[in-house]
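Standup notes
- DV: blocked on the single-chain target, sequence here:
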Amino acid sequence: MHIPASHVLSNFLHSVPVSFRWPAITAAGAAIVFGLGLANAQQPAAKPSAEGIWLGTLQAGAVSLRVQVTIKADSGGQLTGALDSLDQGSMGIPCANVKLAGDDLTFDVPAVNGKYAGKLSADGNTLAGTWSQHAPLALNMTRQQSALAAKPAPAPVYDPAMPPVALADLKGVLDRDLAEALKSGELAPATGAGVAIGVVEQGVRQVFCYGAAKPDSIFEIGSITKTFTGLVLAQMVAQGKVKLDEPVRELLPPGTVAKPDGAEIRLVDLATQRSGLPRLPDNFTPADKDNPYADYGAANLYAFLLKHGVALPANAQYLYSNLGFGLLGQALSDRAGLPYPELLKQQVTGPLGMNDTSIALTADQQSRFIPGHDDSHKPAHAWDLVAMAGAGAIRSTACDMLTFVQANLHPEGVKPVGASPGTATVVQALKFSHELRADIAPGVRIALAWMYVAESGNYWHNGATGGYSSYAFFNPDKDYAGVVLLNTTFSEKNFADRLGEHISQRLAGKPAISLAP
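- DV (later): unblocked, structure below
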């Protein structure tokens, strides 16, 4: 989840660490402020048409970024489109329902729940219109002769390598590496930021904090929730309640969505981000932009599916979808006959003894729920997820999350607790959830939600909500794992990601991405 300072867009997931930015996984789909800047107009077409390349400026408070829209027509005259957020390096975001009626052009951008409506000038060179996403903003665009390239992402800066840092020495190394961030950067006193870090190496655990965080502080973990949903799926497979290749349609209430003519979306497609579903449903219209998922329930999700269908696109590729994991969590809940929070406790947090990990908080937990901040370090509202819970609803502590990554690091060492249905199968399910099932990019594969980087040997996932960001990793070969929980949302500097990668690199004795402001 990436949330920009302007809050023009509301989304809750991000999936790209600082050192891995490939086209198939972009921060764009998670949350982009669409900026659009004006440039050279070409000669007007003899007959005005919407086809071509358009560029404009969307001003959202102090934020002004360029976005270009490319519109094409197929042999049958059907219009298609794609949007580029040039200054954020996020290209090819699909547009849907591209229509030109007279001189009125409209299209949707489902990935960010945005809509555009504009009027084509008589000479065909300009569009005057409005971008709507929570509040309407003026968006005027000019036809271009050629497409602009994305703004190059700045090359990451690395601190020199040092010998692999032992866990006993890690706090001292981080004290030094974080000194500038604590003084004038992401963790400076004026920001209100706090970070809780958990690391385990060869069975030894440590939790330490900086800034406003305490060891028992509770954070929203955002999209790391997806790894829990992947484990719930693995548990229900191990228990014979579902099959990995079972169509998701068969788990939903009867009559929810028709069986498609060809291939259809299966549970494994949802869990490996290969369902072809957009990042967000097109009927996602939050009443409260500060708590955008609170009013999106199962009825809304089923209404979307009724219209969209569950056909699996031919040659479906990796496409990060919050909607896909929200649907997976809801479908598993439907099959189990339990709300997602109860299913989570039955299958994961109960058997693993994670008593401070939940969706709804007790009074004691609420008192330890550290206040969140947006990317401008202003107070941010907590997020409540209903039908989308399986994609990003969980709240937890560094200690509990360390228990979770340690269980993933060494499933054979887990000693399940309690007597829930998940207790007997959790070890088997953890191992099953790590099996690599599809490619994402060269050297990067995906298991059930967890992404795996061959070069480092790390399994990882990250997350963000409106006021929090997080990063988790485990490395079975090198026998270490870690988690970073930050009470500030994703920003351009990706601080939680950088810190998580930095810790992994220090443990491995590699050059470590800089944490300096």
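- Follow-up: Confidence is low (pLDDT under 50) at residues 1-45.
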